[in-house]
Amino acid sequence: MQNSYVYIDPQSYQNLAIYDYSLLSHMDGDIHYVCSQLYNYKPLPPNVHRHRMFSYTKHHHRPIKAISYIFSCLMLTIKLLWWRPSVIHIQWFRIPRFDYLMVFLWQRLFNIKVIFTAHNILPHQGNENKNADVFCKAYHAFDRIIVHSQTTKNEIIETFRIDGNKIEVIRHGILPFDLSNEQYNASKKVLDEKYAALQGKTVFSVLGYQNFYKGTDLLARVWAETPELCNNKDAMLVIIGKKNAADMNLSMLEGIDNVIYEDRRIPDEEFVYLLRHSNVYLLPYREISQSGAMLTVLTEHVPLLLTDVGSLAEPLSIARIGWKIQRAEESELKNALIYLLSHKEEIEVIHNDHQAWEKVCKFYDWQGISKQTQKLYESLI
Asked: How far lies 334's CA from each of 226, 249, 328, 338, in Å?
């Protein structure tokens, strides 16, 4: 009898849908993929059965979202009675206290082994301390925990007193855009006109959702208050993405000639265009376990300037594809940006080092990651 697994990701849209597809498309066995109704990435292989059970994202009011999510989890419990999987793999908690109760219930009712991927030790959104106690209980309850770096493993062990033997380090793979040349070329002419100011400049970019932990406000303050940056006619800073943190102030960028800042969601075509017209991608994170944005940037061979937090600097240990600063502090970030503007040839050398980029991309290849995950599933049966 073929082993059956259930893979649960309530947030399976945009980059997270790419993550799920990339992982599951290289795995064997009978897999029930319980996902969001918003999943719209590539079709999955025949052994992966997709169930679009989570519809909470279509509701606008938080209480209704919560009710919808809880209902989906209860319906999933009924499905589990029928599927009788050997292993459940959970990607994210949406309502931590409720989710922990569901894990407790599934383990007791069905004698199922449960794996959880800890993308971050605690959620970024909201008050992290509020959920620390329930995550502590959950981490002890899971049969195995997947993390993306040794650093994250060590932090979970130290913070929650977890047995290190139940934590498996499995890398996070590269997240390529599903964008054809036809789609890109169709928008290129309009984008060339819109971003004509980037031509001939050294372009630093930060794209996608902006949160406090990403340090975008720190970058904005450094750029606005440093004449060597804000008055440099050969440089451009591009920050485009929806601001998720209401208290994160970026207003100091207004009126600076060499800054393009827009608080809005960025379409895929525009994201790729700006990556291809960037010289350095900035990741001045205050904290992170692993960055999906970075793993997308790698596909376009854009040199990185990042902080040495979590496993963010891991690619630089594989090959020289950028620069790192030790902490998200104004003086370090300022000095690094000024250095790069006076060493533009160094940026170009790194961008054109195809062997280095190939080495890094191979390290984050999904096929090996899927095999390691499959082996973990099988070890619990």
From this structure: 8, 18, 10, 6
- State the pLDDT at residue 97: 94
Mean pLDDT of 81-106: 95
Largest interatomic CA distance in the chain: 68
Neighbours of 154 (CB within 10 A): 13
What phi and psi values does residue 254 have, to the nearest 5 degrees? -65, 135
3-state secondary structure of 42: coil
Tell me if 152 sits within 8 A of 289, measured CB to CB. yes
Task: Let me know: does 62 contact 53? Beta carbons within 8 Å.
Answer: no
pLDDT at 126: 47
- What is the three-class DSSP state of 89? strand
pLDDT in tens, 267-314: 989 999 999 999 999 999 998 888 888 999 999 999 999 999 988 999
Residue 53: helix, strand or coil by DSSP? strand
Instruction: Report the DSSP beta bridge partners of residue 50.
Output: 33
